[in-house]
Amino acid sequence: MPKTLLQIDWLTILIIAILIGFGWGNIYSTTFVSPDESILDLSKIYGKQLLWIFLGALIGVVILALESKFFERFANIIYLFAVLSLLGLFAFGKTIAGQTAWYSFGAFSIQPAEFVKVAVALALAKYISDLDNDLSRFKSQFKAFAIIGVPLALIMLQPDAGSALIYLAFLIPLYREGLPHFYISIGFLTAAIFILTLKFGFTLFAPIFGVLIIIVYLFNKRNKPKLWKYALILLFGIGFSYSVNFILNSVLLPHQKDRFDVLIGETNDIKGSAFNLYQSEVAIGSGGWTGKGWLKGSQTQGRFVPEQHTDYIFSTVGEEWGFMGTSIVVILFTLLILRLFHLAERQKNQFSRVYGYSVMSVIFVHFFVNVAMVIGLFPTVGIPLPFFSYGGSGLWGFLILVLIFLKLDAKRKSLN
Amino acid sequence: MRKLLPIILVSFTAFLFLIRLFYLQIMDDSYDEVSTNISVRKVYDYPQRGYIYDRNGELMVGNQPAYDVMAVPLEVKEFDTLELASLLKLTPERLKTQLERAWRYSPRLASVITPQLTKKEYAYLQERMHKYQGFYIQKRSLRDYDVKHSANILGYIAEVGQGEISEKSYYQSGDLKGKQGVEEQYEEVLRGERGVKHYLRDIHNKNIKPFKEGKFDTVSKKGSDLHLTIDAKLQAYGEKLMKGKRGGIVAIEPSTGEILSLVTAHSYDPDLLVGRKRSRNFTELYYDTIQKPLYNRALQAIYAPGSPFKALTGLVALQEGVVDLEEDFRCNGGYSYARGVRMGCHNHPSPVQMVTGIAHSCNSYFAQIYRRTIEKYDTPQKGIDVWRGHMASFGLGDYLGYDLPVGRAGLLPDADYYNRAYRYPTYQWYASATLSNAIGQGEVLTTPIQLANATAAIANKGWFYRPHIIKKVDDKSIKEEKYTTKQVTTIDKEHFDPIIQGMHDVFNYGTAKFLRVPGIEVCGKTGTSENYTKIDGERVQLTDHSIFIAFAPKDDPKIALAVFVENGYWGSRYAGRISTLMIEKYLKDEIERTDLERWILNNTLEDEYAKPYSGEPFKINQ
Hints:
The structure holds 2 protein chains of 2 kinds. By secondary structure, chain A is mainly alpha-helical. Chain A has helices at residues 2-7, 10-31, 45-65, 69-92, 113-129, 138-156, 161-165, 171-176, 181-200, 202-219, 227-251, 254-263, 275-285, 298-301, 313-345, 350-374, 392-410, 412-415, and strands spanning 94-96, 99-105, 108-110. Chain A has 2 domains: 2-177 and 270-415, no CATH class; 180-251, no CATH class. Chain A has a 3-stranded antiparallel sheet with strand order 1-2-3, covered by helices on one side. Chain B is of the alpha+beta class.
């Protein structure tokens, strides 16, 4: 154990500790009633979060104490338990706000989806590190997608589209390990077409897209262009763009469609669907350079931003700490992700590397989607900001996710 | 290459977020104001409007509480329209249009939905308003009139108009502001300064705590009390005398320029323009185009001054040295001043001199001395301008600078005026062409207050203070230079004695000898002025206006006044009676000449005023 302590990447721990500490300060600001009350009051949100942090630290110690081989060896069993925990929700779960995503134990609830990410990351790492599998082959691709797809489908059924979205993060480790460019390209292309069509409409997008593809084809001298490939892309692009309206109106639920409309400025119903985003932008926008000061944000203290201690916690930072605070948080997350990337790349063991990549990607996607949503660059999706938002399941899920990797990293030489 | 993807994604994301945050937080300032609007509530504290007293400290206007139902449209949640409408005693349609109007004004600022509820209505509503989010009740103070007169002097207060708000002024929707009269003139003094408290509030509209420890809060400042120069008793008496007549009375204290009373008839009860009934009553008054109760005849009506003007004609002639006091002028029932043109005169002893000329109001005498005044100079243009300069020094042809918001300059013609009228130099014109000015029947037009002011100047023998209606602000006498600087006329002091003697003799043996006030030496001058109207595009002469100017006592003038009674016929008939009654009331407080008083109170001129509207031919000067 003492040896492990020396080998642990303390920089990562430090960044996470800062995020958790700063996060708690903001949670306190959004939920305190009177400064005279004890911060340990467990009936208050900030008091509970303090407890989650303390217990989270204990869980962390336990994980660091475990044998590092344990995770690789039991990856599949953990995965099985995870899938069962999701299935169990349909029998024993508690429904809150239309989503059956929690197990309830008296005053406390646990959201298994926050822990399933760990299991998927482990199972995926285990599968890919198996020498028999090669991600350039379709069979391996299919199995890898299945590992991700099963829990994803179960979460979609809760229904929790936001949490499901997070599983796209696993495309990044798969790509690193040899998944063809095609998947990533098609992913970005689809996203780009969707956004551009929303913004400019099919009639404007389709001709421009067509002309663009033709120009690329004509000027692409280096590689011998295959005409059918271009034709296929063109067909897919225009076809998908054409179906965007159909997806919006028929596939998405009305409230999901509203969220897109809000984002692209189609609707400005600041009392209705645009209320959250509007209040959030006002809170952040009124922060200025240095903010209004801790516990002094008028939007925060008036509790105008709904869900501000959970998904919209970043707006508190914006209002009370200003651009100074928000840029520090953005930089801390960027440093954390880049540090995890660096750690992942230095793994000699493929299991550790794939797992590390997954950890980095999951945190990145959470960070990206959450902050982008709060500052009005992404439709409203209910996922937390890692280490920052209120919530025990989320906090523990992320701590377990990262600390397993730090343990693997600490033992990277012996795992070889 | 594959290793680069995370680095590219993370760097791009960080860059995108920082740009977006920089834009939101630093570049775009609009959020600061929005944030304040959302989270900070302003609670206004409207101070009491200043009281208005008369010159003797008698309360004329006080306050009573009133309650406006206000709404902030953005905060209005779904509610039962029918229920609220019936609670507010509005039709549902009216409630809807009021809310729409409020949206247009501002979604975030409060607008009045229904104004000025009484205390009783408020008590009933208050218990039920909490059900309607976004609505609240704002307390204000309304006027409470202790007098039934002086409506046109006092003016009224009303909700500010949309135009007055959008100029980024002090006012907000629902604020009350003085309109007309003293309320308008001294609005900023009377209203005080409203206070505001800023509270941080939460999403449920509850106040959490003072915003920034009350850094932006202001304390309300009570409006100042005004003491007017008006004598409420005299004013009330004047309005009583003018019942059933049209015209104006302006009484001034000559030694100070203080307006003792300013009566306009037809007038109205100031109480009509208070509270919820205000707008309906106002419309009614506003569209009464026959009696014009909102029209202040004492300040705005311009009349030919008639014979009182002769006093001024005499003064100018004396100052110009064109007539000797002892010089006799014959009057053979008129004065022929050009071939076949004759100015008529009434029957009186002849010959006359300056003093007797005034006492008997001899047209011929004043026509001749006026002609000499103009003809003293090489050209009639020069003569007219010199004459005009003298007249202007009495404040004629000028707004006078008094402290009330309405007025007319009247007309005091100069050489240019006649040049234009007679198309000089194509045609020449002479003093005789303007001769009617001598007797106040020419081009000269005056308002009652101008004539009262000129009378005060005569009483003072050559000077006056600008007439004004403000005496004290918060018990401190006014020190405004405008009203404490002596205005000196161009006439030397000694010339006033014969004129004043003549005006005194008006009562001794002249045109008003039956109007003597026992125990008071009154000086005055009668006037009868011809006037015309248009009926179906035709110029029709109406019964003459009855005019009178007077001051008293002769040797220590305490009151100078001018009275116009439209279509009252000759000067002493209505205006003269009213003038002397006003003087008697003011100086003695008791009326001894009760028969005379009864005559005025019992006689009205309604029949006379109905004539032009009867559609039938009518006789005048009966």
